[in-house]
Amino acid sequence: MAKTQALTPQSEDFSAWYNDIVYRADLVDQSPVRGSFVIRPYGYALWEHIQSDLDAMFKASGHENLYFPLLIPVSFFEREAQHVEGFSPELAVVTHAGGKELEEPLAIRPTSETIIGELYSKWVQSYRDLPLLYNQWCNVVRWEMRTRPFLRTSEFLWQEGHTAHASAEEALEETRRMLAIYATFAEEYGAVPVVRGEKTEGERFAGARMTLTIEAMMRDMRALQTGTSHYMGENFSRAFDITFNDVNNEQAYAHTTSWGFSTRFIGALIMTHGDDRGLVLPPRLAPHQAVIVPIFRANDADARELVMAEVRHLADALRALGVRAKVDDREGMSPGWKFNEWERKGVPLRIELGPRDVGQGTAIVVDRLSGEKRSVRLEALPDTVAEELPKFQAALYERARAFREEHTFEAHSYEELKEMVEHGFVYATHCGDPESERIIQEETKATVRCIPLEGPSAEGTTCVHTGRESGYARKVIFARAY
Q1: 398 in any annotated domain
Q2: Any idea what the CATH number is for the domain that residue 368 is in?
Q3: Residues of the chain whose pLDDT is less than 70?
Q4: Residue 462's pLDDT is what?
Q5: Are 158 and 136 spatial neighbours (Cβ–Cβ below 8 Å)?
Q6: Cis before 355? omega within 30
Q7: Strands 447-452 and 64-65, bridge-based pairing
Q8: Of the residues 273, 305, 321, which one is the last residue of a structural domain?
Q9: N or C: which end of the chain has fewer CB within 10 A?
């Protein structure tokens, strides 16, 4: 598809719009391997900002980074029954290497609980060795049948935290703390409002005792799970013998957690903020926060030198204030072509500067979110841009929050649930019966996204589907999801 061709409108076909934009904003390209995608420099720069900012938050909370191997003995997955059942369909397995068949097949890492459990059993001997607060940044492979860039791919990038604790109380506190970090990052850095909640038993991570999640609403009113934190209890400790001498010198099993955040969040940014013109990126994560487009005739050397001298000065001044400024001085492309490209790529602010502007001591600043254009004095421009970026970030978050609130409902009957779930998130009482969840999903294509940590009380109410008493303290959120 040519880059000058209009994007498919969201209202016409949201899925086609998404596919258009991930390629035409230069975020990804096709890979020769089914279900995998090449992340291009612009997309990877976005991931680098996500990674560096999250990593700083992890380290500030006492976690250290390490790295475990990509290949894991298949037998490790068989030690924890729920885990192997949950991941078997997605495992990619190496059976031959070095020109011969391996004695034991090796799984390509779908997640690392098993191999980490094996090593933790060696590292933990005493309560003095605890807690272990570790994280790794890596790739994983889950053999997906239906794939879409960032949202569901056979290989993706993520971080996975794995901690071990002396007590259930400490491990549960860790599980909640990491969910709070994810929620803070999503909202304050990504401008993506999220609902914090707990997954139902049928939606838990394989082998977990409790799964906490953050759920976001996309602009097609569907939900996207953007981060999860799991309390494993003693499940993996018993499977891998992670034992220690406690304060009473008695043998005890460690309580473990795991938590993960992946390149799926890039999909969340695209679908939460994007519009029919392309991406709209939050300034805190955008590869370029401001792009400067110099304007002059190609054959006018004097105008070029006049404009470029001021452009270089502005770029230096912006960077001195910590603004990620990009100068687009590419030749052979019209200013209008560049305007469209940076609009499509979602750069928060665009600065246009030509000979007449320099002569007047001004530049044009264009806001990607509102489309507003205004003339700003050159001497005030660096400070103005630095001041506008936080306002842009806040406005982007508020727009997404207002959209979610506009498309959030409360159902008091099954008929209302079936009607409302077409249009967004629906709070409703549920009894907690997995079979009821299955039937509702079959009939409405909606699932229980979470039992919110905050939200409408379910006290004294009955399930919209079975009529039985609520199985939870709060009404759950039903939604169609990616």
Answers
A1: no
A2: 3.40.50.800
A3: 1-4, 81-84, 86
A4: 98
A5: no
A6: no
A7: unpaired
A8: 273
A9: N
Q: d(Cα 64, Cα 133) in Å, to the nearest integer?
A: 6
pLDDT at 85: 72
Residue 150's domain comprises: 14-273
Residue 305 burial (C-beta neighbours within 10 Å; 0-12, 13-18, 19+): exposed
pLDDT of residue 144: 86
Q: Give the β-pairing of 290-294 and 325-327.
A: parallel
Q: Tell me, letter by letter, the H, E, C secondary structure of 110-157.
A: CCCHHHHHHHHHHHCCEHHHCCEEEEEEEEEECCCCCCECCCECCEEE
The pLDDT of residue 114 is 93
Q: What is the CATH number of the domain that holds 433?
A: 3.30.110.30
Phi, psi of 459 (to 5 degrees): -60, 130
Q: Are residues 201 and 343 in the same domain?
A: no
Does 6 fall in a domain? no
Residue 87: predicted pLDDT: 73
Does residue 261 fall inside a structural domain? Answer: yes
Same domain assignment for residues 199 and 96: yes
In this structure, the answer to whether residues 215 and 361 fall within a common structural domain is no
Contact in structure between 118 and 76 (CB atoms under 8 Å): yes
Pair (435, 357) in one structural domain = no
| Domain-embedded: residue 399 | no
Whole-angstrom Cα distance, residue 363 to residue 385?
12
Cα separation of 462 and 467, whole Å?
5
One domain for residues 314 and 215: no
Give 362's DSSP letter: E
Shared domain check, 163 and 55 = yes
- Is the pTM of the predicted complex or chain greater than 0.90? yes
Residue 2: per-residue pLDDT: 47
Residues written for the chain: 482
Three-state SS for 256?
Answer: strand
